[in-house]
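User: I've been going back and forth on whether these two constructs are worth ordering. Before I decide, could you fold them both?

Assistant: Sure. I'll take them in the order you sent them. The first construct and its structure tokens:
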Amino acid sequence: MRALGVLVRVALGAAILGGSVLVAGVLVANRKQALTAPVEEVVRRVRVVEASAQEASRVARRWEGFGTARAMSQAAVAPEVTARVVMRPDRIDPGVAVEAGELLLKLDESDFRERLESAQRAAEVLAAQLEGLDVEERRLAEQVEQAGEALRLTRWELERLEEALAGAAAKEIEVMRLRASLARQERERLALQQQLDSVPSRRAATMAELAARRNDAAVARRQLERTAVVAPIGGVLETIDADVGEWVTAGQPVARVVDLRRIEVPLRVPASAHGAVRVGDAAEVRPTNGDGSVWEARVARVSPTVDPATRTLTVYLEVDQAEAAGAGVESPAWAGLLLPGRFVSAEVVAAAGNGRRLILVPRRAVAGDRVWVAAEDDEGRTRAQPRQVRVLHHVVGEFPALAEGETQWSVIGEGVREGERVIVTNLDELTAGVRVEVVGRGE
């Protein structure tokens, strides 16, 4: 019975297996054939702009900033003496042009003239005393010489008497008289010699006093000259604050003159300009009210440091308007000149340098450090290819020969060659090697 059960299970399994094989064969025989068709490659429609090499001067980097104009040469006019104003020329008023050395105010000179005359008289007296010392020195020298001669004669005579007295040929009284005379002559000669010896010291003291009086005269003369208050520089009279009858104090400014021929603008530009802006670079200065005025300028100096608070660099521009301002010295009209105190904007243009040519592409074509170019593959199909680029800077301007309506551009240092077609649309749909179709502006 046990063997029969085994045979029944084997037979049942064989039947099931055979049925499964039969069903599978029927299904395979009756299956439908799948239709195969070629897969179409996706083509992106894009617009391109041809990369163009431009002269560096046309795509130079520019920095904009703001500043307040100031005169490079200006002077506060202060009198050098304290006195009363006795005259002010009729034309001297704020706003008039003045030349260097032109009289602005005349001060009372009477006190200074008296001081000068007094010092001169004292110097003349001392000069006369010096001449008298010369005469006295010559006279004393003669007297000393005469006294010496008389002294020698008296000594000789005394010697003769003393010899005669020894031989009883002379009286003692005569010898005593000569000895007394000799002593008196010696005293007189010594006094004369002392007077003669004192002359050089007296002369030195007199000469020192004379020098002091002459110095007083020179000071008085300068003070007398300083009673004329003149313009120290040529320019325009900004203010004058003294009139006839008023007292002015030495060192206290009474007027101000500004020279309009050279104007300086301390311009604050972005810190990125450090190292790129150089002395001599060109700039254009415009008023912030937009009245259309433009002044040509040059970079005169560059600050060596960046302001950490504002992250700005100060560039000093110089506006040379000597020709226009020079013509205005004879006229009160300053129209067209950049005047001190005016708040302006300016644009500094970096020097081009050595005639370099730089690649220019639309700024919207650059994504980070990459652009896409449309290039043909080996089979002649146009495909998108990514290029790593180095962007030097960005510029604003119109280049209608490259692309009408484009105003924002990127200057490329490397990564794109002149003539390559740079894709400017549908950048987010591009992948490396995808086919593209270049279409026109209206498509």
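The second construct, handled the same way:
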Amino acid sequence: MESASIHAEWVGRVVDGKFSLLQWLGPSDSGGVFLAELDGLPWKQANVELIPADAEKAEALAAAWALAAPLSHPHLIRLIDSGRCAIDTGFLIYAVTEHPEEVLSEILPQRPLTPTEAGETLAPIVDALAYLHGNGIVHGHLKPANILVVGDRVKLSSRWLYAAGKPVWHSAARDIYDAPETSSEPISAAADIWSLGVTLVEALTQYPIWDRSTEGEPIVPAAIPEPFHTIAQECLRTDPARRCTLSDIKARLQPLASVKAPMEPVRTERIQNPPVAKTPISIAIPARYRGPAILAAALFLIALAVTLVVHFHHAEPTSMNASQPPLPAVPAPQPSASTVTPPSSGAAPAPSASPVPTPDAVPAPQTDAPMPENQSSRKSAAADQVIERAMPDLLPSAVRTIHGEVSVKVRVTVDPSGNVESATLDSPGPSKYFAKMSLQAAQSWKFKPTQDPSTWTLHFKFKQSGTDVTPVQVSP
């Protein structure tokens, strides 16, 4: 029974009389994964993985799921249920787990993590591993594809787990995340340390670092900042006895909590010698130099004041005539539509591409004057039709991951009364989280009543400084 047939035939089915399959999420290495609705459980939606019972990995996976069932940790994906079922003539095993909004392996093709993000990701993963190791369990499959975000928490997948000291089930092809010794020895906690080192380097550079065909230990790129460079190097010892421990990693991560500048790399000296508050330094000026020093300071302040007066005198005509604020990126409703909800709380509108013309400014020559006027009229008309804008309620931790701009387009169908009947993603962008939040917000928009239904595109633009939405009427 192939995963392709699962995809083609089973959306809409009910698994084991409990889980309704809503959407196909993609194939797994042995079967398929669906988004499911859970009736009567705290989790409204979850992932259901279905695997043919006669698949090569079925027995090993069932054992791993049994190992994960009693575990509970805030940074470990919860196994909600597992069992066996039949659909049509096929017998299957299944596992139901929390549904993640983000997966690290989907972020890294777009960009690497910043040092701050790497620290925020590494710390909870270390905690989850410490919990597993304390229970005599080895994760055994630590890699970006198994580092997930549920709500505002980073979590580690619990799909594959091993009892420490047991042989490892090997697939036909091993990868860089597998510790070298696991090809011939029972698995131990040191194997997770190796995988953590490989994953850390990939998270900061977007690339794995070691070719198994070469001899010797991996060399961590020098560009990786501390303390991550030292952590990765100590994780990637080919001799498992020489690898660092989770306690060592925690100790090296602790100074990061006191670093206020989020993008500043952490220096090695801060790990070895934590910063100590110093007494402010005072410099005494000899008495014979105090008079000239005071005079020089006074002359400098006078010169600075004259420079500022001249600067503002020249700038005054433009600033006085352009006293109105710059045009926002999203056209604001006219005064007659005063009931429109402000697009964002605390987020300043982005300036337009060209400044507001002033009487003293010489207008730039235009070869086709009617086009800008028509565009402006269309945008103004679109803005006038909006009665209420609902903006996504974003998690601060998600906003901090934005670099540049995240763009999402949502197409909405509006009934004659002005309510949104349906909303679909036109262009989801690189992030499932921001796509989901845009879709939820779009469903709460309200428009002016019309005689006929209409279709709109809402273009959400997410930046760290705020969120912008541009409504564009598609039809009629």
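Notes on the second construct follow. The domain at 384-476 is CATH 3.30.2420.10 (TolA/TonB C-terminal domain). DSSP finds twelve helices and 17 strands in the chain.
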